[in-house]
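User: Sequence in, structure out. Go.
Assistant: Echoing your sequence, followed by the structure tokens.
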Amino acid sequence: MKTPQKRRVSLAKSKLQSNTTFRMNILFFAIFLLFSMLILRLGYLQIVKGEDYARAIARTEEVAVNTSVPRGRIFDSAGRLQVDNEPVNSITYTKMQTTKSSEMMDVAEELAKLIEKDTDKVTLRDKQDFYIQLNTESATEKVTAEERAAIEAEDVPQKEKQQKLDALVREKITDEELDSLTDEQLEVLAIYREMTSGYALSPQIIKGEGVTDEEFAVVSERLTDPKLEGVNTVTDWKRVKMTDLTILGSTTTPDQGIPANRLDYYLSRDYSRNDRVGTSFLEQQYEDVLQGQKSSVKNVTDGRGRVIETVPVDEGEPGKDLVLTIDSELQYELEEIVEEKLLALKAGPNSQLVKDAYLVMMNPKTGEVLSMVGKRVGEDENGKRVVNDYAFGTFTAAHEMGSTIKGATLLTGYAQDAVEMGEVQIDEPLKFAGTTQKNSIFNTTPFNRIPMNDLMAIERSSNVYMFKIALDIADRQYQYNRPLSVAPESFALMRNSYAQFGLGVETGIDLPNEGTGYLGGVSPGTKLLDLAIGQYDTYTTMQLAQYISTIANDGYRVQPHVVKEIRKASPDGETLGPIETVIEPKIMNRINNTQEEIDRVKEGMRNVYIGSSGSARAQFSDTPYTAAGKTGTAEAFYFERGNPFHNTVNVNIAHVGFAPYEDPEIAYAVVIPYVTTDPTKVPKTNNEIARAAADKYFELKAKHSEDEANEIKPPFSGTRIK
């Protein structure tokens, strides 16, 4: 009976051992499979993906870093410095990609112990956020459970809910609580907000101008201190103008950075938000040239994104220098002439409206602008009369220019077969139905008839001669007291002809925001006649200068420019850098006239200066050089609501000329708007400025050598910053 019992036990043990062995075999097989898969995976990673992962491990981030590459400088035509970079000590902060806000706050608190930081830029929002950061628990408790529940119940994304909750917390912070922030805390906040305004791995200026030598030294001594991680001391620069000439333009500061309206434009060109950029005139026009190339570095990061090494890749390149066509000595002297005459006018009778005066002088063959003067009378904060630079008005402000454009009208008449060279016309007062009498200044008596040819018409400035050219172009015959109807095509024909000279169109000057003047429409009455004598459409002084240059240059219209050369940065600080680009003369078009016709108009303009009836004879008949020109007087309406002279007729005066007559070196245009409120007493200040300016040019030409020096010179001693 016992044997069967033992057998059953033996069979059970055998079965148990068999099951255990089977399970162990399965386990070992599974382990084998897992190890096989692991080995295969490791082999795949090592053999197939090894190079990819090796590259990933070695991957570095190349970041363009603003290292304050000096902006290109600006020199006048003689190498005198006009705009420079002045070095300044600066304290910067560079945050890492892994830097936390709390870590930046700790650095700000430590840095605040070492430097003084202005708190004027701290905003209400900054104070609110800072207060919440310092008093998180008590600030968040200001929002009730009901208010939180109401926000959570809204059907909006969670991010928007959090924004509403944060805004509600800020609203509940009282003025008294914000006033509890100490001056020391506000200083920390001012530093902190500068730290957070920049990009990771890009230095942000914490304090630029105003860093004292003591602050610079103390911070420099502690650059290795972990409490000041990311802080650095560098030599930065600021833009300094040596003259108040406005066309040089201006740049933003690092605090201002890129203007908001140009942010996308500059960011797409690898600028940083705190980069300095040109905001007006030359600084803006030549931004790409002046800016330079920022240095580039490779930031090597570890697995946590921390920078462990910075490797220079490109040292960058300073901005290129501009050499202007303007001679600062000539500019200064002509400014003095214009300013003196403008103040004399303002001190005289009937001068309630006069405030501006303009003068442009250029080389008619090359388009080089030798001087562009604009002056405006104003008052300082104490009510004292001052004269400010308004040079940009020479190409932005447009006015009626009067008889100065009669040379273009006569040449248009030649081209349209409306008049022939030497043709005699009768100067007589004209009367059209529904209008007042239209006449020349020297012939106001009705039915008085004075025969004159084209030369005399220019010399004596005959309005009627030009009227009759316009009538012929419009295919109309004058009949006493009959209405005049003119087709729009006649306006278009004359304006298209004027455009060949640069009147009413862009001159192409290398400065932004050029104005083109006002086109007066296509009135069916006598406005075409007014257009022919410069009393309808308006033009800028620069357009007037290009117009007279076109005549002086035998009909070739040349594009004016104020930059002569683009040079690389000076290698030694004493000589100008190598020339990279020379701005060559650019001919825009030639007028539709023969050389004989152009010479005929030049002869008439010569007679304006030396003829017995010349309107500028008193000022130009005795010049030691030969010259020719044309004067202009235009009736102009003044518009300024609230001014007692609003909508009244006033007088603009202008003058154009060129010299020497046989081989012109200069062409000049003078404009003084609203020179008098009494049309019967018009001063000749336009002629006086033109004569003094031409005299000064030839005087300085004789004084200075023709050799082009390559040395960098200090600013002309007469220039000044107001």
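User: And one key feature?
Assistant: The longest strand covers residues 81-93.
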